[in-house]
Design a protein that fits this description.
alpha/beta, Rossmann fold, 2 domains, eight-stranded mixed β-sheet, six-stranded parallel β-sheet, 13 helices, about 25% strand, binds zinc ion
Length: about 350
Amino acid sequence: MGETMNALIVRAPMDFSIEKVKIPQVPDGGLMLKVLACGLCGSDLRTLRIGHRKVKFPFTIGHEICARVENYGKEYNGSWKIGDTLAVSPLVYCGKCDFCLNGEYELCSNYKEIAQTWPGGFSEYMTLPKEAVERGTILLVPKGMNPAHATIVEPLSSCINAQEKANVSAGDSVLIIGAGPIGTLHLELARARGASQVIVADISDDRLKLASSYQPDLIVNTQKQDLNAEVLKATNGYGPGVIITANPDPATQVAAVEIARKGGRILIFGGLPKDKETPGINMNTVHYNALHLIGTTIFAPWHNKTALELLSSGGISAEKFISHQFKLTEFVEGAHLALEGKARKIVFIP
Ligand SMILES: [Zn+2]
Ligand SMILES: [Zn+2]
């Protein structure tokens, strides 16, 4: 192991590059990891664009990580051994709050995140603190699984939590509004859970084209077509039983309430910009149509475990989902491709 390594350093919004930095010291009770692959997430793009309230620049982000154990610190008593390959998701639960005690880890009041509290994975090496070893979302990757594929565990985990909460199941008609990477994962997951019809809507032909390789039952460009009319026609006038909003436009949440089948479940998956947090939803429609509005965020350890199982068994294809792979040294080039909306999922390999 040399003295220096390549790492992404984000200095300010839209000011980032790969630099030579010192390899960190392995912390007491923690692990030194060699990063094998790290995925670029929509939230990373937002951090690159405008920063993040929990990230202090200069900083190394990257939270969809697959890495190999290189070494461990003093008094390490975790179960992973040198040479093990790990899928590292960023959440580190407190383990003490009422939600953690209740087993509702995804609601933890005091969770921390790798790539916010500690440096992330767009780097040749990274360390895991003792806290993450003890209460983190870290899984042993089965032998033979492609490290790039293991980076999809993290984004898929949030989708699994959401679809479990909405009980997406056999026979459901599902409308996904937003055909970005997360919308696409929702599409494949809904199918894996037995949905009989999956409809995808977006404003971007580029994104719809990327999603079309998943052969949804219907694709709607909401710039050019009337979403309400198209979806009602495709569902025999009833509307979809499940609607997932995977985008930051408040108008799509308003529309979801109008379009949903009576008794339907609406998953509010995508967050909204701070100045658009209160869309004018017709709450009488929610009332009279007996709708369920379901908010979800992050995930618990078992969603993480299910994600790895689905990906390693091929129930969800990581290979198909990853549209590009770049070397870490090509980070700037890859990030710009994603910032321009021309990639589904980019994974960087140090
Ligand atoms: Zn992510
Ligand atoms: Zn907690």
